[in-house]
Design a protein that fits this description.
The chain is α/β, with parallel strands linked by helices and about 220 residues long. Helices cover about 25% and strands about 25% of the residues. It has a six-stranded mixed beta sheet. A five-stranded mixed beta sheet has the order 1-2-5-4-3. Strand 6 and strand 7 form a beta hairpin. The chain is globular and about 55 Å long. The chain has one domain.
Length: about 220
Amino acid sequence: VMTKEDTMIVCGDFGALWHGGRRDEIQLAILEDLPFTVAFVDGNHENFTALSKYPVEEWNGGKVQFLRPHVIHLMRGQFFTLEGHTFFTMGGASSHDVDDGILDPAAPDYYERLFRLLGEGREQYRIVGQSWWPEELPSKEEYAEARRTLDAHRWEVDYIITHSPPGGIAEELGRPQDTLTDFLEEVRQKARYRRWLFGHCHGDWEIDESHLLLWERIVRIV
């Protein structure tokens, strides 16, 4: 039997905040009613404008945002201790379904571009502040904080939780690489850890004994 003392960690793209309004309130109420605590790292499909409105607090050694008492955003570059085990978290990912562009509603040609795409039946686009946010990738400050956190713990941790894969694994999976996957590859090469769990690649695969891609699968690690 699970209780609120038990924690389920979601490896990003949780979508708990998307619309920033009433629909999110309903979704969060449903999550709060679950018989366990839900914690998540952010992916690239979060409403970062809505997420930024929640205060930053400390929980089990690292920075978090409480969306509800038992719905918790694990922030980037943080180190947590849960049930005697240590976790390093680093959310974020690039949106790769943007071949038709990222449209800015503030741009003078916004409607012209949007109607042209709609007329051509093209759907690989996103809209700033509605379906895409520049905060999907970490800032320089977040990378710096992540390195300080890892330095403080001598780059030793039991579990690493991310949304993006490290660069070498992204290459193996045929996925695009970016500044975040480059940073995570640096972590993979330098850190000592037991297991790395990540999402983003739409699959449930045991990459090797240390790296696990999760999408729909739930695994017990502690």
